[in-house]
């Protein structure tokens, strides 16, 4: 089996989908001739031509608005917002149009678009290249939200998203593009070529949207995470020597609540980790659901570890970034409660 980086896995997913279905089109800023700022679309224009992989003006609202019209016409656009931080001009199109087409047309129309966007920090990108806006999408009825943590999942989930009849927000943690970053920024990053989840089939396969994965089995405390924070949580559990069960959500909406409830009912403790700002982050939803469904099993309050309630600080990146130290302290806190 081939070993791929997450960039290569994402590219392979689009390649496989375009080969299987002529209605799949890829477009966005610099995705054609240049191959994307992270090279996620490299070679697709040369292989499929300029009508199926093409560049757009710097106009996020226009990119998504065009995709919605194409989807209503019968195409399957997979578009790229160059950084998640730039999605705000397109938010009106996503929330008022894409998310509501099925409902407002009584099922006569669907909107099979995928909006890909690199998300998160850890690359010294500063406040306009490091945001994690996933919670803004999970609040919108009609959108599906995916955040993969590894190349194998990225490819299978992206193919599933492209084949899904409804709009899917596909957030790619850019700190994971080349390796499973665990938050230890002072150490070299292990490449995906040396990680089991870097093994990715060349052909077509899908991973069900809405199904979480238990990455580490444990009995003392449940850690719920997604994206880069999955690897941080694994490192924190190992560093702290705590028998933690680590859940990789993969899909935020729809959410695999059963896996969370089953785990917390077993462990009696829960820590939720995400990179986005704390207030109204997706961790608040997870914490509320755990309290609602697992109250009589809890041995300690649910604890959240997240980014600060500030713009992403370039000069204090590793203090803002929820690393293994912060997660480890949260694990110790719930174990001592």
Structure overview:
- Residues 4-179 form the Transketolase-like pyrimidine-binding domain.
- Keywords: Oxidoreductase.
- Its cofactor is thiamine diphosphate.
- The structure is a single chain.
- A seven-stranded mixed sheet has the order 3-2-4-5-7-6-12, sandwiched between helices. It has a five-stranded mixed sheet with strand order 9-11-10-13-14, sandwiched between helices. Strands 1-8 form a two-stranded antiparallel ribbon.
- It has helices spanning 6-20, 44-48, 60-73, 91-97, 101-104, 134-138, 151-163, 228-240, 257-267, 282-294, 317-320, 324-336, and strands at residues 2-3, 24-28, 53-55, 76-80, 114-119, 144-146, 168-173, 199-200, 213-216, 221-225, 244-248, 251-253, 270-277, 303-307.
- It contains twelve helices and 14 strands.
- With 337 residues, the chain is α/β, with parallel strands linked by helices.
- It has two domains: 2-200, Rossmann fold, CATH 3.40.50.970; 213-336, Rossmann fold (3-Layer(aba) Sandwich), CATH 3.40.50.
- It is 35% helix and 18% strand.
- The longest helix has 15 residues, at 6-20.
């Amino acid at each position: 089996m081939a070993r791929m980086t997450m960039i290569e896995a994402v590219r392979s997913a689009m390649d496989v989908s375009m080969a299987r279905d002529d209605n799949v089109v890829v477009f966005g800023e610099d995705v054609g001739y240049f191959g994307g700022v992270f090279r996620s679309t490299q070679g697709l224009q040369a292989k499929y031509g300029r009508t199926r992989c093409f560049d757009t003006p710097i106009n996020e609202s226009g990119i998504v608005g065009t995709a919605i019209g194409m989807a209503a016409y019968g195409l399957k656009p997979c578009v790229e917002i160059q950084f998640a931080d730039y999605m705000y001009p397109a938010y009106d199109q996503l929330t008022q149009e894409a998310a509501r087409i099925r409902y407002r047309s009584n099922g006569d129309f669907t909107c099979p678009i995928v909006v890909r966007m690199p998300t998160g920090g850890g690359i010294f990108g500063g406040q306009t290249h490091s945001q994690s806006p996933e919670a803004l999408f999970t609040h919108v009825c009609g959108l599906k939200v995916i955040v993969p943590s590894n190349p194998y999942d990225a490819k299978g989930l992206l193919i599933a998203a492209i084949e899904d009849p409804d709009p899917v927000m596909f957030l790619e943690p850019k700190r994971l593009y080349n390796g499973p970053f665990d938050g230890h920024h002072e150490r070299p990053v292990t490449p995906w070529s040396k990680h089991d989840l870097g093994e990715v089939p060349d052909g077509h396969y899908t991973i069900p949207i809405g199904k979480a994965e238990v990455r580490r089995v444990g009995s003392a405390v449940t850690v719920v995470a997604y994206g880069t924070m999955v690897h941080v949580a694994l490192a924190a559990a190992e560093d702290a020597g705590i028998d933690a069960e680590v859940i990789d959500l993969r899909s935020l909406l729809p959410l695999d609540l059963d896996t969370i409830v089953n785990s917390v009912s077993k462990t009696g403790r829960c820590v939720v980790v995400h990179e986005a700002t704390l207030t109204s982050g997706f961790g608040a939803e997870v914490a509320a659901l755990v309290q609602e469904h697992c109250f009589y099993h809890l041995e300690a309050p649910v604890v959240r570890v997240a980014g600060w309630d500030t713009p992403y600080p370039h000069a204090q990146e590793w203090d803002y970034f929820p690393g293994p130290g912060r997660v480890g302290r949260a694990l110790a806190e719930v174990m001592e409660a």
